[in-house]
């Protein structure tokens, strides 16, 4: 039995944190009064004929009388005593009723100061539990003389204690409700979005600080007024009222749970766009509405600005496409119109040059005319090629062996290279069969080799390398010539672009050859790039898709 008492005292110790938390949750320790508990203590004194009845809550170092009838001064005014004057603490530690006939004869209580200072001789106290079972204190009756407690008196006090316990549970629930409400109000007051609640009639029941800032009406002005008058433009009033009526009739809202954009108005009749998220709930079988709203004026402005920019961009794209088509049409027309007169000039030049009696001075002039006409013919051909490629001209690709094309191109350009004292070297490995158009690939080789020779100085070297690598045909043409400034490489394949090193030396050119070459390579699903050579000059790398069959197997 002694072990059980010790266990009960340990489990119900006064300073147990869980018990103290439940005690503070009642909100009664600092309450001014508890009228419903006062009625119970008064009833106790009348029913059991006792001078004093208390509702005592036991804190960690004191007992607080949240209701007291018949208590003498100064204790009545103080409303509490230290635990040195408490019998109720033992109800807490024992977690059981404590009924004493004469405290002076009780071994545990005889030294308690309540006997001397509060004249507590007879005592009957019953535990007051929290909803979760913690013993918070005692409902007790006190007499200043010894008393034998009857069974009826004990039962009456137990019933009154049960009623007091129910009242304390209500105080606890009310305190939790108020705390929850305060927390929610803090959230609503600090949120950046306006929060508005309406009842079934559309009258405002909640209006936070953000709503005040957004619409200009204070909470005191807004509460109880129709939300229609506070934030909805007049032209939408009828539609809003009709929507409320539909919800009242049908019990459902199409906007509930949706995020919608609306036009709102403020106190100064300024209209602006808002985004609203609204929820509908039922209270006492009537709909109520809770909405969060925020101003999206800036977002709308940015969206409109983006839309305008997009329209401008689309217009510019259309204009550029039209200009590009006009350019292509112009190039095609000009090229065709130039081809005929150039042909006539070259024909008459050849006819005059065939005259054996032509003076030497005129023959030299004819040579200049012929060379110039040849350059014009090359320019016209390049322009036509670019126009056709831009128009999406499709090549007729056939399986071909690139080796003979390379060797033939090297032989053709070796004569020019020798005349310029430039060494032309070819290193051709066994190559795969590739899909290509022979004439166009020959054009690529001619353009790259002629440039390499033209931009090489006497004593220089042009090296042509062809190999099979990872199912690709890779052609490299490297020269040791005048080179290209590093910052100009990104523009090397642009139309009419010419490197400053070439223009600085007065080397002739149109700036179209590499653009045509790139277009032909890409039409074969290939790539072309340029980079500085290891021994100076420039290195061009062409990569084309290949088949796995090698030339050696043909």
Strand order of the largest sheet: 3-2-1-6-5-4
Annotation field: number of helices: 17
Per DSSP E runs of 2 or more residues, the count of β-strands stands at 18
Question: Structural class of the secondary elements?
Answer: alpha+beta
Radius of gyration: 52 Å
Poorly predicted segments = 1-11, 548-554
Notes on the protein architecture:
With 554 residues, this protein is of the alpha+beta class. The chain has helices at 2-11, 17-25, 35-47, 75-78, 88-94, 113-117, 151-190, 209-215, 219-222, 227-231, 237-250, 297-353, 360-390, 402-419, 438-454, 500-504, 513-523; strands spanning 52-58, 62-69, 80-82, 98-100, 122-129, 135-143, 194-198, 204-207, 259-265, 271-283, 286-295, 398-400, 423-428, 434-436, 461-469, 472-479, 527-532, 538-545. A hairpin with a 5-residue loop joins strand 5 (122-129) and strand 6 (135-143). Helix 1 packs across helix 5 (88-94). The longest helix is centred in the middle third of the chain and has 57 residues, at 297-353. The radius of gyration is 52 Å and the shape is elongated. It starts with a helix and ends in a 9-residue tail after the last strand.
């Amino acid at each position: 039995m002694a072990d059980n008492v010790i266990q009960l005292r340990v489990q119900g110790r006064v300073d147990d944190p869980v018990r103290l938390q439940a005690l503070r949750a009642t909100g009664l320790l600092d309450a001014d009064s508890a009228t419903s508990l006062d009625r119970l203590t008064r009833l106790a004194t009348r029913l059991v004929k006792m001078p004093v009845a208390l509702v005592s809550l036991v804190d960690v170092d004191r007992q607080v009388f949240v209701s007291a009838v018949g208590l003498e001064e100064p204790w009545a005014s103080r409303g509490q005593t230290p635990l040195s004057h408490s019998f109720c603490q033992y109800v807490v530690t024992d977690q059981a009723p404590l009924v004493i006939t004469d405290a002076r004869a009780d071994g545990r209580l005889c030294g308690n100061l309540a006997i001397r200072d509060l004249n507590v001789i007879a005592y009957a106290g019953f535990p007051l539990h929290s909803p979760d079972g913690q013993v918070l204190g005692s409902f007790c009756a006190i007499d200043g003389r010894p008393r034998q407690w009857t069974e009826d008196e004990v039962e009456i006090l137990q019933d009154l204690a049960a009623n007091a316990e129910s009242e304390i549970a209500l105080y606890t629930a009310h305190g939790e409700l108020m705390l929850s409400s305060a927390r929610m109000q803090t959230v609503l007051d600090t949120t950046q979005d306006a929060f508005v609640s309406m009842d079934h009639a559309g009258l405002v029941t909640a209006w936070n600080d953000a709503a005040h800032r957004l619409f200009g009406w204070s909470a005191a002005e807004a509460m109880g007024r129709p939300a229609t008058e506070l934030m909805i433009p007049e032209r939408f009033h009828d539609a809003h009222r009709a929507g409320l009526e539909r919800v009242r009739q049908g019990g459902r809202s199409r906007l509930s749970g949706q995020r919608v954009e609306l036009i709102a108005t403020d106190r100064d009749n300024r209209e602006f766009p808002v985004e609203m998220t609204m929820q509908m709930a039922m209270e006492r079988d009537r709909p109520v509405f809770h909405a969060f709203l925020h101003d999206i004026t800036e977002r709308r402005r940015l969206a409109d600005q983006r839309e305008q920019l997009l329209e401008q961009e689309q217009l510019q794209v259309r204009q550029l496409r039209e200009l590009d088509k006009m350019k292509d049409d112009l190039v095609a027309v000009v090229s065709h119109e130039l081809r005929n007169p150039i042909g006539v000039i070259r024909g008459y030049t050849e006819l005059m040059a065939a005259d054996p009696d032509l003076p030497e001075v005129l023959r030299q002039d004819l040579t200049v005319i012929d060379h110039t006409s040849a350059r014009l013919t090359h320019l016209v051909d390049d322009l036509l090629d670019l126009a056709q490629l831009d128009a999406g001209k499709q090549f007729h690709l056939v399986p071909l062996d690139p080796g003979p094309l390379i060797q033939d191109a090297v032989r053709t350009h070796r004569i020019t290279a020798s005349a310029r004292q430039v060494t032309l070297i070819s290193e051709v490995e066994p190559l795969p069969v590739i899909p290509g158009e022979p004439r166009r690939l020959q054009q690529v080789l001619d353009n790259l080799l002629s440039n390499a020779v033209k931009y090489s100085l006497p004593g220089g070297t042009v090296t042509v390398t062809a190999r099979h690598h990872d199912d690709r045909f890779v052609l490299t043409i490297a020269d040791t010539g005048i080179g290209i400034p590093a910052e100009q490489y990104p523009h090397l394949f642009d139309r009419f672009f010419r490197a400053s090193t070439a223009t600085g030396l007065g080397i002739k050119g149109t700036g179209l050859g590499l653009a045509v070459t790139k277009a032909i390579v890409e039409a074969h699903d290939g790539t072309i790039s340029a980079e500085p050579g290891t021994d100076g000059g420039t290195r061009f790398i062409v990569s084309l898709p290949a088949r796995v069959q090698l030339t050696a197997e043909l």
